[in-house]
Design goal:
The chain has about 210 residues and is of the alpha/beta class. It has 9 helices and 5 strands. Bound molecules: CO-5-methoxybenzimidazolylcobamide. CO-5-methoxybenzimidazolylcobamide binds next to helix 5, strand 3, strand 4 and helix 9.
Amino acid sequence: MSYFQQIAQAVIAGKAPDTERLINEAIAAGCNPADIINQGLVAGMEVVADKFKKNEFYVPEVLIAARAMHAGLAIVRPLISDTDVQPLGKVIIGTVKGDLHDIGKKLVAMMLEGAGFEVIDLGIDVSPEKFVEAVREHKPDVLGMSALLTTTMPAMADTIKLLVESGLRDQVKVIVGGAPITDAFAREIGADGYAPDAGSAVDVTKSLVA
Ligand code: B1M
Protein backbone atom coordinates (compact mmCIF):
# COMPACT_ATOMS: atom_id res chain seq x y z
CA MET A 1 0.00 0.00 0.00
CA SER A 2 1.26 3.50 -0.84
CA TYR A 3 1.76 6.09 1.89
CA PHE A 4 -1.33 7.89 0.58
CA GLN A 5 -3.50 4.81 0.89
CA GLN A 6 -2.15 4.10 4.37
CA ILE A 7 -2.86 7.68 5.45
CA ALA A 8 -6.40 7.43 4.05
CA GLN A 9 -6.91 4.16 5.93
CA ALA A 10 -5.64 5.71 9.17
CA VAL A 11 -8.12 8.59 8.77
CA ILE A 12 -10.99 6.22 8.04
CA ALA A 13 -10.08 4.21 11.15
CA GLY A 14 -9.84 7.45 13.15
CA LYS A 15 -6.27 6.74 14.24
CA ALA A 16 -4.74 10.15 14.80
CA PRO A 17 -1.31 8.95 16.03
CA ASP A 18 -0.98 6.60 13.02
CA THR A 19 -2.04 9.40 10.68
CA GLU A 20 0.64 11.67 12.15
CA ARG A 21 3.34 8.99 12.03
CA LEU A 22 2.54 8.02 8.42
CA ILE A 23 2.53 11.65 7.34
CA ASN A 24 5.91 12.25 8.95
CA GLU A 25 7.24 9.14 7.19
CA ALA A 26 5.74 10.22 3.88
CA ILE A 27 7.32 13.66 4.19
CA ALA A 28 10.70 12.11 5.07
CA ALA A 29 10.34 9.86 2.00
CA GLY A 30 9.86 12.97 -0.16
CA CYS A 31 6.11 12.80 -0.84
CA ASN A 32 4.52 16.04 -2.05
CA PRO A 33 2.56 17.68 0.83
CA ALA A 34 -0.30 18.60 -1.52
CA ASP A 35 -0.59 14.95 -2.58
CA ILE A 36 -0.60 13.91 1.06
CA ILE A 37 -3.61 16.17 1.60
CA ASN A 38 -5.52 15.27 -1.55
CA GLN A 39 -4.71 11.60 -1.98
CA GLY A 40 -4.37 10.78 1.71
CA LEU A 41 -6.41 12.96 4.06
CA VAL A 42 -9.15 14.10 1.69
CA ALA A 43 -9.44 10.66 0.09
CA GLY A 44 -9.91 9.17 3.54
CA MET A 45 -12.58 11.70 4.50
CA GLU A 46 -14.41 11.01 1.23
CA VAL A 47 -14.76 7.38 2.26
CA VAL A 48 -15.92 8.48 5.72
CA ALA A 49 -18.54 10.79 4.17
CA ASP A 50 -19.75 7.99 1.95
CA LYS A 51 -20.03 5.53 4.83
CA PHE A 52 -21.88 8.14 6.91
CA LYS A 53 -24.35 8.64 4.08
CA LYS A 54 -24.97 4.90 3.90
CA ASN A 55 -25.37 4.63 7.70
CA GLU A 56 -22.27 2.43 7.87
CA PHE A 57 -20.64 5.08 10.08
CA TYR A 58 -22.31 7.07 12.84
CA VAL A 59 -21.50 10.43 14.43
CA PRO A 60 -18.72 9.16 16.76
CA GLU A 61 -16.79 7.49 13.91
CA VAL A 62 -17.04 10.65 11.83
CA LEU A 63 -15.83 12.84 14.69
CA ILE A 64 -12.90 10.53 15.38
CA ALA A 65 -11.97 10.42 11.68
CA ALA A 66 -12.19 14.20 11.47
CA ARG A 67 -9.90 14.46 14.48
CA ALA A 68 -7.34 12.24 12.72
CA MET A 69 -7.65 14.36 9.59
CA HIS A 70 -7.10 17.58 11.56
CA ALA A 71 -4.06 16.06 13.32
CA GLY A 72 -2.61 15.23 9.91
CA LEU A 73 -3.49 18.60 8.41
CA ALA A 74 -1.69 20.37 11.25
CA ILE A 75 1.56 18.71 10.14
CA VAL A 76 1.17 19.21 6.38
CA ARG A 77 -0.41 22.65 6.23
CA PRO A 78 2.72 24.63 7.16
CA LEU A 79 4.62 22.81 4.41
CA ILE A 80 2.46 23.93 1.53
CA SER A 81 2.27 27.31 -0.06
CA ASP A 82 -1.12 28.73 -0.94
CA THR A 83 -0.62 27.91 -4.60
CA ASP A 84 0.08 24.22 -4.02
CA VAL A 85 -3.44 23.32 -2.99
CA GLN A 86 -6.31 25.35 -4.33
CA PRO A 87 -9.35 24.98 -2.08
CA LEU A 88 -12.45 23.81 -3.91
CA GLY A 89 -14.11 27.00 -2.74
CA LYS A 90 -14.86 29.08 0.33
CA VAL A 91 -17.84 28.26 2.54
CA ILE A 92 -19.28 30.29 5.39
CA ILE A 93 -21.41 28.23 7.72
CA GLY A 94 -23.39 28.84 10.88
CA THR A 95 -26.40 27.87 12.95
CA VAL A 96 -29.17 30.43 12.56
CA LYS A 97 -30.39 33.02 15.03
CA GLY A 98 -32.02 31.67 18.18
CA ASP A 99 -30.61 28.18 17.61
CA LEU A 100 -27.82 26.75 19.76
CA HIS A 101 -27.52 23.29 18.17
CA ASP A 102 -24.14 22.84 16.59
CA ILE A 103 -23.18 19.16 16.48
CA GLY A 104 -24.58 18.56 12.98
CA LYS A 105 -23.32 21.89 11.70
CA LYS A 106 -19.81 21.10 12.96
CA LEU A 107 -19.97 17.73 11.22
CA VAL A 108 -20.94 19.43 7.97
CA ALA A 109 -18.09 21.93 8.41
CA MET A 110 -15.58 19.16 9.07
CA MET A 111 -16.72 17.12 6.09
CA LEU A 112 -16.48 20.17 3.85
CA GLU A 113 -12.95 20.84 5.11
CA GLY A 114 -12.11 17.20 4.60
CA ALA A 115 -13.35 17.47 1.02
CA GLY A 116 -11.02 20.42 0.39
CA PHE A 117 -13.18 23.50 1.03
CA GLU A 118 -11.98 26.46 3.06
CA VAL A 119 -14.58 26.80 5.80
CA ILE A 120 -15.34 29.76 8.02
CA ASP A 121 -17.58 28.67 10.88
CA LEU A 122 -19.52 31.56 12.40
CA GLY A 123 -20.78 29.37 15.24
CA ILE A 124 -24.29 29.32 16.69
CA ASP A 125 -27.10 31.86 17.08
CA VAL A 126 -25.92 33.73 13.99
CA SER A 127 -28.20 36.63 13.07
CA PRO A 128 -29.10 37.44 9.45
CA GLU A 129 -27.06 40.64 9.85
CA LYS A 130 -23.99 38.69 10.94
CA PHE A 131 -24.33 36.23 8.03
CA VAL A 132 -24.69 39.07 5.56
CA GLU A 133 -21.75 40.96 7.06
CA ALA A 134 -19.60 37.84 6.80
CA VAL A 135 -20.60 37.33 3.15
CA ARG A 136 -19.67 40.93 2.42
CA GLU A 137 -16.32 40.58 4.18
CA HIS A 138 -15.19 37.09 3.12
CA LYS A 139 -16.88 36.76 -0.28
CA PRO A 140 -17.56 33.01 0.05
CA ASP A 141 -18.74 30.85 -2.83
CA VAL A 142 -21.34 29.23 -0.61
CA LEU A 143 -23.26 30.21 2.54
CA GLY A 144 -24.44 27.29 4.66
CA MET A 145 -27.14 27.62 7.30
CA SER A 146 -28.17 25.02 9.84
CA ALA A 147 -31.36 24.94 11.95
CA LEU A 148 -32.58 22.25 14.32
CA LEU A 149 -35.70 23.92 15.66
CA THR A 150 -38.92 24.50 13.77
CA THR A 151 -39.05 27.89 15.49
CA THR A 152 -35.69 28.96 14.01
CA MET A 153 -36.35 27.81 10.44
CA PRO A 154 -37.76 31.26 9.48
CA ALA A 155 -34.37 32.81 10.31
CA MET A 156 -33.06 31.12 7.16
CA ALA A 157 -35.65 32.91 5.06
CA ASP A 158 -34.85 36.17 6.87
CA THR A 159 -31.16 35.76 6.04
CA ILE A 160 -31.82 35.12 2.36
CA LYS A 161 -34.16 38.12 2.29
CA LEU A 162 -31.46 40.30 3.82
CA LEU A 163 -28.91 38.99 1.30
CA VAL A 164 -31.28 40.08 -1.47
CA GLU A 165 -31.86 43.49 0.13
CA SER A 166 -28.12 43.96 0.54
CA GLY A 167 -27.50 43.20 -3.15
CA LEU A 168 -25.36 40.18 -2.29
CA ARG A 169 -27.69 37.33 -3.20
CA ASP A 170 -26.25 36.86 -6.70
CA GLN A 171 -22.70 36.58 -5.37
CA VAL A 172 -23.22 33.55 -3.16
CA LYS A 173 -24.96 30.18 -3.33
CA VAL A 174 -27.01 29.20 -0.30
CA ILE A 175 -27.32 25.71 1.12
CA VAL A 176 -29.52 24.85 4.09
CA GLY A 177 -29.89 21.81 6.30
CA GLY A 178 -30.80 20.48 9.71
CA ALA A 179 -33.28 17.93 11.00
CA PRO A 180 -36.55 19.89 10.36
CA ILE A 181 -35.44 21.24 6.97
CA THR A 182 -36.80 19.73 3.78
CA ASP A 183 -36.04 20.14 0.12
CA ALA A 184 -39.45 21.77 -0.32
CA PHE A 185 -38.72 24.30 2.44
CA ALA A 186 -35.32 25.07 0.91
CA ARG A 187 -36.94 25.81 -2.43
CA GLU A 188 -39.74 27.81 -0.83
CA ILE A 189 -37.28 30.22 0.83
CA GLY A 190 -35.14 30.52 -2.29
CA ALA A 191 -32.09 28.53 -1.21
CA ASP A 192 -29.94 26.98 -3.94
CA GLY A 193 -29.46 23.66 -2.22
CA TYR A 194 -30.53 21.39 0.61
CA ALA A 195 -28.76 18.41 2.12
CA PRO A 196 -30.18 15.95 4.64
CA ASP A 197 -26.78 14.94 6.06
CA ALA A 198 -23.14 15.95 6.16
CA GLY A 199 -22.05 13.61 3.37
CA SER A 200 -24.70 14.90 1.00
CA ALA A 201 -23.82 18.46 2.04
CA VAL A 202 -20.40 17.92 0.48
CA ASP A 203 -21.93 16.63 -2.77
CA VAL A 204 -24.42 19.49 -2.97
CA THR A 205 -21.77 22.11 -2.15
CA LYS A 206 -19.47 20.68 -4.82
CA SER A 207 -22.29 20.86 -7.34
CA LEU A 208 -22.99 24.49 -6.37
CA VAL A 209 -19.42 25.59 -7.07
CA ALA A 210 -18.95 23.46 -10.20
CO1 B1M B 1 -32.34 20.20 21.30
N1 B1M B 1 -33.96 19.83 20.29
N2 B1M B 1 -33.22 21.69 22.19
N3 B1M B 1 -30.69 20.34 22.28
N4 B1M B 1 -31.83 18.55 20.53
C1 B1M B 1 -33.90 18.79 19.28
C2 B1M B 1 -33.50 19.37 17.92
C3 B1M B 1 -35.39 18.23 19.31
C4 B1M B 1 -35.81 17.56 17.99
C5 B1M B 1 -35.52 17.26 20.52
C6 B1M B 1 -36.93 16.74 20.68
O1 B1M B 1 -37.76 17.41 21.18
N5 B1M B 1 -37.19 15.54 20.21
C7 B1M B 1 -36.19 19.51 19.68
C8 B1M B 1 -36.67 20.34 18.50
C9 B1M B 1 -38.16 20.25 18.26
C10 B1M B 1 -38.54 21.05 17.08
O2 B1M B 1 -38.34 22.23 17.01
N6 B1M B 1 -39.12 20.37 16.12
C11 B1M B 1 -35.20 20.25 20.55
C12 B1M B 1 -35.54 21.24 21.51
C13 B1M B 1 -37.01 21.50 21.67
C14 B1M B 1 -34.57 21.96 22.24
C15 B1M B 1 -34.81 23.04 23.28
C16 B1M B 1 -35.90 24.05 22.95
C17 B1M B 1 -35.09 22.31 24.60
C18 B1M B 1 -35.47 23.22 25.74
O3 B1M B 1 -34.64 23.95 26.23
N7 B1M B 1 -36.72 23.16 26.11
C19 B1M B 1 -33.43 23.71 23.40
C20 B1M B 1 -33.27 24.86 22.39
C21 B1M B 1 -32.00 25.59 22.58
C22 B1M B 1 -31.77 26.51 21.40
O4 B1M B 1 -31.23 26.10 20.40
N8 B1M B 1 -32.20 27.76 21.53
C23 B1M B 1 -32.55 22.56 23.01
C24 B1M B 1 -31.25 22.42 23.48
C25 B1M B 1 -30.43 21.36 23.19
C26 B1M B 1 -29.07 21.14 23.82
C27 B1M B 1 -28.30 22.44 24.07
C28 B1M B 1 -29.30 20.44 25.14
C29 B1M B 1 -28.39 20.13 22.82
C30 B1M B 1 -27.54 20.82 21.74
C31 B1M B 1 -26.05 20.71 22.02
C32 B1M B 1 -25.25 21.18 20.85
O5 B1M B 1 -25.63 21.12 19.70
N9 B1M B 1 -24.07 21.63 21.17
C33 B1M B 1 -29.61 19.52 22.15
C34 B1M B 1 -29.59 18.32 21.41
C35 B1M B 1 -28.30 17.54 21.46
C36 B1M B 1 -30.70 17.86 20.67
C37 B1M B 1 -30.87 16.52 19.94
C38 B1M B 1 -31.10 15.47 21.03
C39 B1M B 1 -29.76 16.05 19.04
C40 B1M B 1 -29.33 17.05 17.97
C41 B1M B 1 -28.06 16.55 17.34
O6 B1M B 1 -26.98 17.01 17.68
N10 B1M B 1 -28.16 15.54 16.47
C42 B1M B 1 -32.17 16.79 19.07
C43 B1M B 1 -33.04 15.57 18.90
C44 B1M B 1 -32.67 14.81 17.67
O7 B1M B 1 -32.32 15.38 16.65
N11 B1M B 1 -32.82 13.53 17.74
C45 B1M B 1 -32.72 18.00 19.71
C46 B1M B 1 -27.00 14.86 15.85
C47 B1M B 1 -26.56 15.63 14.61
C48 B1M B 1 -25.41 14.90 13.95
O8 B1M B 1 -27.64 15.63 13.70
O9 B1M B 1 -28.04 18.09 14.04
O10 B1M B 1 -29.63 16.68 12.64
P1 B1M B 1 -28.27 16.98 13.12
O11 B1M B 1 -27.34 17.27 11.84
C49 B1M B 1 -27.33 16.45 10.70
C50 B1M B 1 -28.34 16.83 9.63
O12 B1M B 1 -29.47 17.50 10.13
C51 B1M B 1 -27.54 17.64 8.65
O13 B1M B 1 -26.26 17.05 8.70
C52 B1M B 1 -25.99 16.69 10.06
C53 B1M B 1 -25.07 15.51 10.04
O14 B1M B 1 -25.56 14.48 9.24
N12 B1M B 1 -27.35 19.06 8.81
C54 B1M B 1 -27.05 19.82 7.72
C55 B1M B 1 -27.34 19.84 9.89
N13 B1M B 1 -27.04 21.09 9.57
C56 B1M B 1 -26.85 21.13 8.24
C57 B1M B 1 -26.49 22.16 7.38
C58 B1M B 1 -26.37 21.87 6.02
C59 B1M B 1 -26.58 20.59 5.53
C60 B1M B 1 -26.93 19.56 6.36
O15 B1M B 1 -26.02 22.79 5.12
C61 B1M B 1 -25.52 24.01 5.58
